[in-house]
Specification:
Layout lengths: L16 H10 L10 E3 L2 E3 L6 E2 L16
Antiparallel strand pairs: 1-2, 2-3
Length: 68
Amino acid sequence: MVCIDTPMATSPTDDGDELLDQFLSNRGHTVERVGWEQEYNKKQCPDCGGLHDTAATTCSVCGWEPAR
């Protein structure tokens, strides 16, 4: 049996995310909410690595938003 672990993209909205998180948790996977990373005095998108001012709420490169 071969298992392939592929990363999942973040959905544009949280619709269904809680259900998916619960499904994965029930099967032993660790689920955590992802937020902005800090790179010096900038915010860094965890999906694409784009750098933004600290006031940014959405990634202007890929459209990622932190979970609310």
